[in-house]
Design goal:
six-stranded mixed sheet; globular; transferase; about 450 residues; alpha+beta; lipoyl; Dihydrolipoamide acetyltransferase component of pyruvate dehydrogenase complex; E3-bd_dom_sf; single chain
Length: about 450
């Protein structure tokens, strides 16, 4: 019997996925365990394997297109089998609430039968809701009875979150008139946006300002969604939820450069500045564990493990692979793990567990010649350390009781902290200890 393949849910916060490429063509034979397609999740590109043998009969999603999780995107079955019949049977099975055949379909149990109109009461289970719509109903306390007459636009008539927030006619009118539904107050049941609401917003909107340059040509235009939107939403939430406080100091890298050179003369693996920074940060976090903390469900949680993330700009956007339990590893082991994680992060091939679970992050733009910058905290962590480039700078030193101006290779470091959890004194102590370790790197090994 043909199997309907759905967009899988590969992360707790994953609501939709982007299909990167099909690894099999329609009509091509598929073996169990072979990679059928690749998708972009919230941070990385993940291969999805076929769960059985057969032929790829049909695909319903093009490459680089998006689909909600659990939405059917392909059918695999025996050669000559009717893919549309399989889809129809799948839809009927979902509407009838029958036991699904795959784990993905089990999680899609929200797609159940619409209750009869004559029923005296309507329960969430009686409605054919997508997972995102079901969560919206629960989070906002929406009366299920108010949804029973909605004509869903999802798979097989499933009610989506967009159907609940705005009527189909209101959405079409908003697209045509350029009205942002996020700015419209709905007057329908439970605040649903109706056609009249969009018309009112459109008439009240000021006339569009003339283009700054009528001859301006657009190089490209892509939807603000997927990885870029996830990164933006996450950092915006961090910036506007956690009050950021910043602490900056300059580090003389003379001794660190000499230390790294000596290490590389005896080490089988090349030690990078990033490796030293991770190792020093772990030692500093052990000395000042208050920095190694998070705000979780109203509790300030302080961690014993120093799980340090290193921000990397990959093909799919910013990602922060995490080196777990740095305090238990040697500098050489950290170097090996760091190189592997960074290489795969740039290719977009990290597993979800490899970019989650961090307790502290480092963002190093020194290799790009940046003199100074401010990093946004990576939630739910409480702090992030930004590293700038090394520059020859005149500094004042004391020698034989006299002040002298000398040229030294200086590097700015800046600690961004969540002021709800971390006070200025603790942050200052951490920064000064990091400076001490980096200017006297032998202390890192002690």
């Amino acid at each position: 019997m043909a199997e309907v393949i759905c967009m899988p849910k590969l992360g707790f916060n994953m609501d939709e996925g982007q299909l990167v490429r099909w690894c099999k063509a329609v009509g091509e034979e598929v073996k169990k365990g072979e990679v059928l397609f690749e998708i972009n999740t919230d941070k990385t590109t993940m291969p999805v394997e076929a769960t059985g043998d057969g032929v790829l009969l049909k695909t319903m999603l093009g490459e680089n297109e998006y689909a909600d999780v659990f939405t059917p995107i392909a059918v695999v079955g025996a050669a000559g089998e009717d893919a549309d019949a399989a889809l129809a049977a799948y839809g009927e099975g979902a509407e009838g609430g029958s036991a699904p055949a795959t784990p993905a379909e089990e999680e899609n149990a929200a797609l159940v039968a619409t209750a009869a109109e004559a029923a005296p009461a309507v329960d969430v289970k009686d409605l054919k809701l997508t997972p995102k719509a079901k969560k919206l109903v629960k989070d906002e306390g929406i009366d299920p009875a108010s949804l029973k007459d909605i004509k869903g636009t999802g798979f097989r008539g499933g009610i989506t979150a967009k159907d609940i927030k705005a009527s189909p006619l209101a959405r079409k009118l908003a697209e045509k008139s350029g009205v942002d539904l996020a700015t419209v107050a709905g007057t329908g049941i439970n605040g649903k946006i109706m056609k009249a609401d969009v018309e009112k917003a459109a008439s009240a909107a000021p006339a569009a300002a003339p283009a700054e340059n009528p001859d301006k040509k657009i190089l490209s235009s892509v939807p603000y969604k997927g990885v870029r939107k996830i990164i933006g939403d996450k950092l915006a939430e961090s910036k506007f939820t956690a009050p950021h406080l910043y602490f900056t100091d300059a580090v003389d890298t003379t001794n660190m450069t000499a230390f790294r050179k000596q290490m590389n003369e005896v080490s089988d693996r090349k030690i990078t500045v990033s490796d030293i920074l991770v190792y020093a940060a772990s030692k500093a976090l052990q000395k000042f564990p208050g920095i190694n903390s998070s705000l979780v469900d109203g509790n300030i949680v302080t961690y014993k493990s120093t799980n340090i993330g290193v921000a990397v700009a990959g093909d799919n956007g910013l990602i922060v692979p995490v080196i777990k339990n740095v305090q238990e590893k040697t500098l050489t082991a950290i170097s090996e793990e760091n190189r592997d994680l960074v290489d795969r992060a740039k290719e977009g091939h990290l597993k979800p567990e490899e970019y989650s679970g961090g307790t502290f992050s480092i963002s190093n733009l020194g290799m790009f010649g940046i003199g100074n910058f401010t990093a946004i905290i990576n939630p739910p962590e409480a702090a992030i350390l930004s590293i700038s480039s090394v520059r020859k700078t005149p500094v004042v030193i004391e020698e034989d009781g006299e002040d002298k101006i000398v040229i030294r290779p200086m590097m700015n470091i800046q600690l961004s902290v969540d002021h709800r959890l971390i006070d200025g004194l603790l942050a200052s102590q951490f920064v000064e200890y990091m400076k001490e370790l980096l200017e006297n790197p032998l202390k890192i090994l002690l």
